[in-house]
Amino acid sequence: MEIDYNAIKSKVERERCTEHNQNAKFTKTRDGYCIKTCCEKFEKKIAKKAETFLEKEIENLLNKMLR
User: What b/e readout covers 36-65, taking b as 16+ CB neighbours within 10 angstroms?
Assistant: First the structure.
């Protein structure tokens, strides 16, 4: 079983910067993932959300493994 990065990607890329009306770009990398944003303010906001999304995906994965 693996972390579903596609689910995280779709959630992250749905988010939109309120100042610039731009979406974040999520890319899976060898070491995890990278998120590109239009500004630092949006980057901080989306980083927190991405962390939450990742935590939920890990929790779901662990629950599936323990069944």
Answer: ebbeeebeebbeeebeebbeebeeeeeeee
Please check whether residue 1 is in contact with residue 64, taking contact to mean a CB–CB distance below 8 angstroms.
yes
How far apart are alpha carbons 42 and 16 in whole angstroms? 8
Q: What is the pTM of this model?
A: 0.83
Task: Tell me the C-alpha to C-alpha distance, in Å, between residue 55 and each of 38, 51, 52.
Answer: 24, 6, 5
The phi, psi pair for 52, rounded to 5°, reads -65, -45
**Can you tell me the mean pLDDT for 40-52?**
95
Indicate if the alpha-carbon torsion angle 53, 58, 63, 64 is positive or negative.
Answer: positive
